[in-house]
Amino acid sequence: MHDRVVLFVYRWLPDKPIKAVVQPRPFRYFDKGNMAVVGKGFAVLQSGGVRLSGFLAWMAWAAVHLEFLAQSSLRVSVFVQWVWTYLTGQRGSRLIVNYHESRSSAKPGLHDAASQGVMRSSGLARGDGR
Description:
Strand 2 and strand 3 form a beta hairpin. Helices cover 39% and strands 13% of the residues. By secondary structure, it is of the alpha+beta class. It has a 3-stranded antiparallel β-sheet, covered by helices on one side. It has 4 helices and 3 strands, in the order H-E-E-E-H-H-H.
């Protein structure tokens, strides 16, 4: 994969020496199989001749997804969140909040049309909490 990137970048370099061309290896696809979560504690897995379903497939799905997270700190964080959700049934907030108070705004939090539309449709703009 890296030699494909090198070749791509090399093609855009000015004043490149002719002998420095890197020939990429031929692309080969490796089918890793299919996995899907069906519900809490139940998944299906098919890889080659292996077929699993149920709790064991669900654990395999979780292990594969944790393994492919980029940072070990993310692996730990996601694992702890999953364990908490599994044991308690409580889901954490899935909102990404980036609140910046505006000096010119009379109502903090109502800065753009999108948030105002959400506030109107949810009834929070009326102040009744419905």
